[in-house]
Amino acid sequence: MVFKRILAGIGVGGASVETTLDTPTVQPGGVIRGTVHIQAGDVEQRIDELTVGLESRVEVESGDHEYSRNVEFQRVRVGGQAVIAPGQNFRVPFELPVPFEAPITSVRGQRLYPMNVGVNTRLSLAGAVDPGDLDPVAIEPLPSQAAFLDALATLGFQFKKADLEQGRILRTRQTLPFYQEIEYYAARQYEGLNELELSFVADQHGMDVVLELDKKGGLLFSEGSDTYHHVAVTHQEGTSRDWAGYLHQWIDSLAGRRRVF
User: Fold this and answer.
1) Which of the residues 138, 170, 171, 236 has an alpha carbon 20 to 30 A from that of 17?
2) What is the mean pLDDT of the chain?
3) pLDDT at 140 over 50
4) Model-level pTM?
5) Measured between alpha carbons, how far is 239 from 200 in angstroms, rounded to an integer?
6) What are the structural domains of the chain?
7) Closest listed residue to residue 133, CA positions, set 14, 38, 8
């Protein structure tokens, strides 16, 4: 993956930047490797700082209003002060650690629409910061997370959408200012269920799995309701547990059939 541009706000004849990713697919806790290529323009320019980071779109609720904004949740400095003379070229290799809490954007190559995480490249030139573009990167689930997602597919749940929400999930190991929600249409075998929402909150030791069931109301007058469930496991436990059996027992007891009253 490559993006190239003339740096904003520096006029005709300015430097250009091209970023290449050697690892366009990664897992939480992994490392993205790549190279920033800086090609000088027709004038001498001073570089103050070069950084790369991870960025995504986050939904925000404020009172009765909702909006989305770009949030950078990881950044590393890969270059300091330097002067580039006309005709000079620089190659700056980098390693960008991916937080364990990073959102999942694809599963076995299938995108979790509309999730999008990108690597940004920001170059500070003489006090002016070029905001850069985003080079998309695919974040695949950890084996423990994939085992859970496979169990949902086995039970017949179908992916609906995924997004990031600003805020915190209580009693989890969350450190980032947002969390991911992955939504599924209910499997047909659970007549009393509308939808299921899933959030992973991981670190190097394990993960919190937070589930929300949107249950249907009764046939006469009663409204639907939400039920929450939280389970914490190590990554080793997450790969060895019978998630399909565990989930079926819990979901079927709550929403296996639609209530009459």
Assistant:
1) 138
2) 88
3) yes
4) 0.88
5) 14
6) 2-139 (2.60.40.640), 143-255 (no CATH)
7) 8
